[in-house]
Amino acid sequence: MRDLNRHLELCSINTATLGHQWPLDRTLDAIARAGYGGVAPWRREVEAAGVGAAARQLRALGLRVSGYCRSTYLTAPTAAAFKAGVAENRAAIDQAAELGAACFIVVHGGLVAGSKDIAGARAQGAEAIALLWEHAKRCGVALAIEPLHPMYAADRCLVVTLEQGLDLCAAIDPENSGGLGIAVDVYHCWWDPRLAEMIARGGALRRILAFHVSDWLVPTRDMLLDRGMMGDGVIEIAKIRGMLEDAGYAGKVEVEIFSRDDWWRRDVVETLAVCAARLQSVC
Ligand code: ZN
User: Fold this and answer.
1) Is 160 part of a structural domain of the chain?
2) b/e string for 142-152 if b means 16 or more Cβ within 10 A?
3) How many domains does the chain have?
4) How far is the CA of 258 from the centre of ligand 1 (A)?
5) Is residue 241 part of a domain?
């Protein structure tokens, strides 16, 4: 297992952790100045900064994009909306290529509003991922399907376990020809009785493309926006990182904390310092 102590170059900050308080250029400068080796920016802030300008700044700062956030939801109410969604996500993959991103994060989407057709929604997701993967391969971008916690199944993501994510990869790319895998986020999968088994399976196939850390607070006050700082909750983060690295994961350790009422209200530089301290002491 890698030693993160004094190795922040192995670590990355998802800009959502900082509450999107600053424009991207200022955020990137602060992340680099704090010593991190990576960043996961969101599409809207990259587009506001200009993709070319963001790519140049990342190169100048020596920051690697651990993941580009993220696809729009793949499920759609009509064929036209589905097609438009795929086109929009292809454009985002082009941006990921320009940014040199390690992967493009794919979030499946939930049920179509007003529908109960879970099988149909999952079929749409699989079709969209297959289409996007073809485009991503041509661009040299890897797609990381991110399974989310099952509490988000209805409205955000019908891929809810690592096993389901890996099965989806296997269905789309049975040859394991590369460029298609999953993102392992401790917040979404820490509870899974098959976690160790699925990390080993994903690692053996070289399908673990990203690793996100935060913590599960007890009690959790908001399903979406009350993630904890590493060390403040109940997730065995270091143990899970050990499983990933034993399975061959060598990418960044990315901090991704959605915390509307706590960390998003704090000073960006303070949050970066606390993340650094916790990465090196509890992750
Ligand atoms: Zn994540």
Assistant:
1) yes
2) bbbbbbbbeeb
3) 1
4) 10
5) yes
Q: How far is the CA of 224 from the centre of ligand 1 (A)?
A: 12
| 145: CATH | 3.20.20.150
- Quote the pLDDT of residue 238: 98
Percent of the chain clearing pLDDT 90 (strictly above):
100
Q: Could you list which residues have their CB under 5 Å from ion ligand 1? A: 185, 212, 256
Q: Is residue 3 part of a domain?
A: no
Give the domain extent around 34.
8-281
Question: In angstroms, what is the span from residue 147 Cα to ligand 1's centroid?
Answer: 8
Q: How much distance in Å is there from the Cα of 228 to the middle of ligand 1?
A: 13
Ligand 1 centroid to Cα of residue 253, in Å, is 11
Express each pLDDT in 150-209 by its tens digit.
999 999 999 999 999 999 999 999 999 999 999 999 999 999 999 999 999 999 999 999
Distance 188 CA to ligand 1 centre (A): 8
Distance (angstroms) between ligand 1 centre and the Cα of 14 equals: 9
Angle ∠(224,183,44) on CA atoms, nearest 5 = 60
The answer to whether residue 48 sits within a structural domain is yes
CA of 208 to the centre of ligand 1 (A): 13
> What pLDDT is stored for residue 86 in this prediction?
98
SS (H, E, C) 200-223: HHHHHCCCEEEEEECECCCCCCCC
Per-residue model confidence as pLDDT tens digits over 82-131: 999 999 999 999 999 999 999 999 999 999 999 999 999 999 999 999 99
Mean pLDDT confidence for 243-247? 98
